[in-house]
Amino acid sequence: MCQQKRKFWQYFWRCALVIILVLTFAGWGVEPAQALLRQHHDSPSVLRYHSQVSIKDEFGYAWQVLLFKQNYNNPVKDLRLRLVGFPGVVEIAHPQPLEIETAGGKLLLASDAYAVTAPASNVGEYQLTDVLAKLPTIDALKLHVPVESGKPLVLNIPNSVVTEWQWLVTEID
Known about the structure:
Elements: H1 2-26, E1 36-43, E2 46-56, E3 62-70, E4 78-84, E5 98-102, E6 107-110, E7 123-127, H2 129-132, E8 141-147, E9 150-157, H3 159-171
Antiparallel strand pairs: 1-2, 2-3, 3-4, 4-7, 5-6, 5-8, 8-9
């Protein structure tokens, strides 16, 4: 009987160790970007929501990526995607469109909302009203940001953020 108890506990602790190791190493592959729905007041009685996430580009620089609705009084909601890069490091090329690549390789274009003037050279804003409806709800995306230095920068948008964008558009008004 004592031999069986000892074997049981040895088996138990081995299984526990394997589970702990699997959970530890599985967490290393998790995408660190988590979108966050935020509230803001347009006026004292008007509360609005937007999705905001910080995502690193291929060079390790952080970008703020914000999806928000504009012109709430209009029956057709104007959806905008604002990209803010690190000042002094990147200059967004205006009036170039933003290329959005789906996981299936489909390319969509979002027009530049700052075609005439941008508030700063590291800020871009793109019209997503027509584009968002064409995006898959569960797949990750690649944003090809047009920059002055030539080849577009790539921002990988995780599927959790894309899902939140769809939720923001369909569920929150």
